[in-house]
Amino acid sequence: MEQMIQKQVTVNGSWITVDVYGDADKDAIVLIPGAMSDATAWRHVARHLDGRQTVAVVNRRGRHPSGPLTDAYSLATEVKDAAAALKEFAGVRALFGWSYGGLIALHLANEVAVPHLIAYEPIMAPFGAQALPDLRHAHEEADLDGTVEVALRRVTGMSEESVEALRSDEAVWNGLLRLASPVYAETLAINEAGHQNTLATMAERIDLVVGELNRGRAPYGTSFDDVASRTPTAVVHELSGQGHLAHLEAPEHLAALVNRLLDSTA
């Protein structure tokens, strides 16, 4: 699925872009990335999804070429943005969210009917709460390098050696810096959203996916378990050999699982 066009959608006080692979006039599977990620990072997954599908990847606000977060930003803002993206298509066959994008998708499916929702390691409060003071300080100082450091070490739990290995790769580190600006506001939004007893109440089918390497382990596996406890009708799947970054490290493997889930409802 090589052809890609980009749509721009006006949203509350800002705009988002949507990368569309396939026929923009057909029913779509819509992908919502999470924090420190953008639509470009999901291009390999999109291109390995079933060729019969139209795949739309939302480039959420706060990352180029989408618009700014705005001062009124919250999880509710993201839900409204995602709803606006869905309206760009004749129909939506499935909604897929990763990490924070999974939380957005689950909240959207409390408000909008969704035929099939797939979420890969969705997170929820209190994810990253312990790092908020340090993230706020880095944000107020416009210190992108500090934001990345805090996000990797204090939010994801990455070791100092692993962080330094990323820093030593200039291209990788610059890519992280490019996506760092919204991290404080996004982490705050996750935690200010609080808890809902049930998620995705208007989804006809829910599939939750956790990477084998994270199952039952903090921070992603334990947050995943919190989400799963609030989606009692969901079926849980495990992606073998993978952690949180399967879309970058094994995009064909992740796409194959999503294709199987889609085919099982065809």
Automatic annotation (TrEMBL):
GO MF annotations in UniProt: hydrolase activity
Pfam families xref list: Abhydrolase_6
InterPro entries per UniProt: AB_hydrolase_1, AB_hydrolase_fold, Carboxylesterase_BioH
The keyword Hydrolase appears for this protein: yes
Keyword Hydrolase attached: yes
Keywords: Hydrolase
Residue span, AB hydrolase-1 domain: 29-252
Annotated PANTHER family: HYDROLASE ALPHA/BETA FOLD FAMILY, PEROXISOMAL MEMBRANE PROTEIN LPX1
The protein's name: Alpha/beta fold hydrolase
Lineage: Bacteria, Bacillati, Actinomycetota, Actinomycetes, Glycomycetales
